[in-house]
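Work Package 4 report. The design task specified in the project plan requires that, given a folded chain encoded as structure tokens, an amino acid be chosen for each position. We show below one input record used in the internal validation round.
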């Protein structure tokens, strides 16, 4: 049985940042990627927000709190915004090349949700360059990275991590790993709105006993129609325009949230993106434009592009504190040895909606904190739970064997179940939510939970079994969507990206985080005020 101080679940920007920080702090660190190593993610697509030309981070803090509709934990927002410039400096020193102004300083751009220019970007190269430098950091500090590793179960004892069970798809074997700490740093479950599985790490924590926080909130982005190509906010900051098909503007305001922009796009028959107006910024987007032309046959330099709005990030997830520790229903209780960062975590930064550039910032800050604290904890604790890990390995083996067996009775294909999931989420968990619709979604999702336990697997082997991987991730996504729906039922108000047609106003009595556990039980968690114990920005009444 292998033994590691810190085990990372994930392979994107947050996972690499957390892993490199853990290894830098002398912890033996293993990173497990569900896919091939080096696939990355789209976290940095919008750029990074930082108050580079402001006397203090106070206005950035206020914009974030307002953008999150006052549901952010204000002391955590303050801390995060205070480190924003440090994160930009870190990326720049590691080799990320930012767009610069006439003075040679990183150029800051105006973008929706921010009252001042503070979005820093490298055009379409930011995501690639950030991922590259974080990979280099992992290599520098000796992080062991393994691809095609499918996490199956966390092994816990008395709300403490003792290990993890993983299906190594390179060998087809279930492996038991003893671990002092586990950091969940993979994706959210945003792919559920497109009928695909995701959120496997978040689901691990959920099944281990973590109540997930603020699952009713999602972040909407703009996509090129009939593609998976996202339109970055930084592209719009560089001059691209969102128009109706007849060339008229949509009446967008700087104060509009991502949800409000998505609503305006939905309200018209066809919105388009005009990227012909990029002018001097055009070279920074050459790779993006070439990709669009290859996928659609449309030349963005000569024609407008049809667009639509979709969920690109789920805001809710594993509740964490300022150290990345997973908390248990109250701020003063932690699930020992369990950490989260990035898209799988609910850090308290975004609140009820996110603003452009804070996504990458949040990923870097939470991942760094989780990696450092996990390493420090691991180096002062001992391994335990060998017998429990062996027992869990045996249980998981039986579960996998059962999934691969030919069953009698009704079995379901992943395509049909995934399509049903997409329909439920797009119709009932979009901008038009109501008690009736959410109850209907709950019933449908409970049915999908049952159907997903009988998904057909066309390969009886565990060796590179993509069908098995897809089945397990879809099961995870359905459970998370059910949790999100139940959280949405519990929040009987409209706040941020959560819009109830039957409760159109905000309710001051509901100014708290929502919690939902694996049994469907709803609870609440208090919002944290400023560092001094008072509001940095008092909530609107």
């Amino acid at each position: 049985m292998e033994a590691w101080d810190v085990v990372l679940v994930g392979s994107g920007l947050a996972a690499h940042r957390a892993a490199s920080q853990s290894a830098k702090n002398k912890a033996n660190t293993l990173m497990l990627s569900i896919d091939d190593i080096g696939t990355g993610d789209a976290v940095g697509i919008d750029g990074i927000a930082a108050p580079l030309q402001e006397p203090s981070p106070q206005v950035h803090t206020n914009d974030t709190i307002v953008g999150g509709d006052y549901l952010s934990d204000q002391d955590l927002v303050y801390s995060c915004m205070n480190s924003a410039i440090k994160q930009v400096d870190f990326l720049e020193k590691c080799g990320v090349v930012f767009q610069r102004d006439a003075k040679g300083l990183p150029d800051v751009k105006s973008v929706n949700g921010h009252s001042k220019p503070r979005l820093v970007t490298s055009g379409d190269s930011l995501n690639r360059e950030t991922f590259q430098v974080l990979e280099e950091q992992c290599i520098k500090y000796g992080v062991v990275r393994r691809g095609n590793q499918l996490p199956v179960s966390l092994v816990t004892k008395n709300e403490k991590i003792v290990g993890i069970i993983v299906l190594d798809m390179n060998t087809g074997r279930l492996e038991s790993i003893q671990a002092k700490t586990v950091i969940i740093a993979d994706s959210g479950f945003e792919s559920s709105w497109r009928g695909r599985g995701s959120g496997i790490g978040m689901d691990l924590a959920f099944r281990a006993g973590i109540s997930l926080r603020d699952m009713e909130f999602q972040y909407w982005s703009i996509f090129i129609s009939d593609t998976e190509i996202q339109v970055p906010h930084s592209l719009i900051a560089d001059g691209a325009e969102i128009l109706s098909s007849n060339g008229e503007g949509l009446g967008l305001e700087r104060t509009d949230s991502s949800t409000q922009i998505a609503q305006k796009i939905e309200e018209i028959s066809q919105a388009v993106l005009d990227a012909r107006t990029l002018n001097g910024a055009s070279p920074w987007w050459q790779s993006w434009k070439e990709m669009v032309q290859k996928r659609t046959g449309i030349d963005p330099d000569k024609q407008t592009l049809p667009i639509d709005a979709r969920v690109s990030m789920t805001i809710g997830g594993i509740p964490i504190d300022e150290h990345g520790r997973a908390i248990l229903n109250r701020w003063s209780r932690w699930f020992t040895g369990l950490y989260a960062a990035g898209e799988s975590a609910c850090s308290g930064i975004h609140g009820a909606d996110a603003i452009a550039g804070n996504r990458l910032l949040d990923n870097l800050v939470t991942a760094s904190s989780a990696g450092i604290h996990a390493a420090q904890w691991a180096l002062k604790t001992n391994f335990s739970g060998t017998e429990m890990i062996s027992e869990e390995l045996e249980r998981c083996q039986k579960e996998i064997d059962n999934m691969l067996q030919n069953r009698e009775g009704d079995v379901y294909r992943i395509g049909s179940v995934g399509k049903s999931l997409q329909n439920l989420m797009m119709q009932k968990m979009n901008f038009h939510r109501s008690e009736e619709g959410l109850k209907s979604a709950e019933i449908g999702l409970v049915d999908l939970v049952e159907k997903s336990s009988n998904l057909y697997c066309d390969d009886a082997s565990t060796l590179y079994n993509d069908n098995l991987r897809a089945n397990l991730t879809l099961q995870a996504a359905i459970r998370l969507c059910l949790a999100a729906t139940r959280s949405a039922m519990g929040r009987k108000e409209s706040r941020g990206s959560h819009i109830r047609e039957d409760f159109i106003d905000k309710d001051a009595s509901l100014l708290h985080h929502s919690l939902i556990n694996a049994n469907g039980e709803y609870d609440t968690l208090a919002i944290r005020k400023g560092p001094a114990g008072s509001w940095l920005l008092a909530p609107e009444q």
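Residues 231 and 245 are 17 Å apart (CA to CA). Validation will be extended to a larger panel in the next phase.
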